[in-house]
Amino acid sequence: HPQQQRPVGSVFVIEDEESVFITVESATQIRGIQFWYPKQTVSDSNRIIPYPATIRVAQNSSAQGVTLSCLTFYGEYLAMDFNAAPSFPCEQILFEHCYGYPLSGQFIRIDRCYDIPRVLHCHVNPANRRLIEGGYSVQVIDAVVRRGSYCYAIDHTDNAQLMDLFAFGVHGGVRLGAASYGQLTNFNFDCVTVGIYKDGDQDFNRNWQISQGSIIANTGARLAEVHPIVITGKGHTSLVNVECFSGANAALTTLNQSQDYLCVLGTEKLTVSLFGCRMRNYAADHPFTVLNDRAVIQAVACIDRLGNLFNFPAP
Fold first, then answer.
1. What tens digit of pLDDT does each residue of 110-145 get?
2. pLDDT at residue 284 is higher than 90
3. What is the pLDDT of the chain when averaged over all its residues?
4. What is the structure's pLDDT at 1?
5. Angle formed at CA 154 by CA 150 and CA 159, multiple of 5 degrees
6. Residue 126, preceding bond cis, omega within 30 degrees?
7. By the 8 A CB rule, do 241 and 275 touch?
8. Cα dihedral sign for 279, 245, 155, 29?
9. 38 phi, psi to nearest 5 deg
10. Are 9 and 34 in contact (CB under 8 A)?
């Protein structure tokens, strides 16, 4: 706007602190809209307003065929809440080309979505208010990280499709829940404590194929909790061309390195395969922290922090 610090175009100005702004039911499309919370702080973490979700899936009926496209959020707390009620799962849900920075750390959360959820081309960055009201302060971004939440979270889904995702300045990039499986490709999770957290509640199809991504895990309360990738539960995880590196960033408080590259937890048998993964700036002597005696792990043609070829188990 030439005179005012505000977005222009198709904009909803939201001030209601009690109610979800939009609840979507079946056969709904929302496109090309901006959602602006002008009262949300950019500088003081003690004044963060925990607004209800901007968009939420219906809780008293099953929503099918919902498209959310080309949406931008300014000052939101939780952007899109698709945690469906147990009796009313949702289906055929598409999120694409959405931008924001949720102060809860949760941009899109999906639970009980079958036939199948797609999250495509989404970008979460605290800089998105910079040219309107000023960028978020270090204090606010640090507070978002401390919430311990995941920018993208998905559970109880069939063959979820996650592609071209970016997140910056949150605790976690993506949480792949125990009752989920699918593909995650072309992603960048920057300035996070945990890049990917993958769980699994059985070994038949709790399998995720993860490829072509970059993780910068460099922030958190303690170095010991900073892991680019955490895997637990059952099932299989395939990692191909997923690189990790860490360093400083003035936008938030950083530790400038991660503890390791991969942390494997739990007591159940799980399997992990890695190919072509470049691993840098981890503090431990070994890139893998394996706290699960039943885990089966193989790495081929990877590169360690010293720039040496890394295979595991060593030949």
1. 999 998 999 999 999 999 999 898 899 999 999 999
2. yes
3. 97
4. 62
5. 145
6. no
7. yes
8. negative
9. -65, -20
10. yes
Cα–Cα distance, 230 to 194 (Å, whole number): 7
3 pLDDT above the threshold of 80? no
Residue by residue, DSSP assigns the chain as --SSSS--SSEEE---SSS-SEEE-SSEEEES-EEE-TTS-SS-GGG---PPPSEEE-SSS--EEEEEEEEEEES-SEEEEEE--TTS-EEEEEEEEEEE--TTSEEEEEEEEES--EEEEEEE-GGGGTTTT-PPPHHHHHHHHHT--EEEEEEEESSEEEEEEEEEEEEEEEEE-TT--EEEEEEEEEEEEEEEEE--S-SSS-EEEEEEEEEEE--SS-GGG-EEEEE-SSEEEEEEEEEE-----TTS---SSBS-SEEE--SS-EEEEEES-BB-SB-SSSSEEE--TT-EEEEEEEE-TTS-EEEES--
Q: Say how many Å lie between the first and final Cα of the chain, rounded.
A: 62
- The answer, yes or no, to whether residue 314 has pLDDT greater than 90, is no
Count of C-beta atoms within a 10 Å radius of residue 231 = 28
pLDDT exceeds 90 at position 77: yes
pTM of this structure: 0.97
Q: Which two tokens stand for residue 108?
A: 């899109």
The dihedral formed by the CA atoms of 242, 299, 288 and 183, expressed in degrees to the nearest 10: 40
Q: Is 136 exposed, middle or buried (0-12, 13-18, 19+ CB in 10 A)?
A: buried
Which residues, other chains included, contact 226 with Cβ-Cβ below 8 Å and sequence gap of 6+? 193, 194, 217, 218, 219, 220, 246, 255, 257, 258, 259
Q: How far apart are CA 49 and CA 190, in angstroms?
A: 24
Q: pLDDT tens for residues 153-172?
A: 999 999 999 999 999 999 99
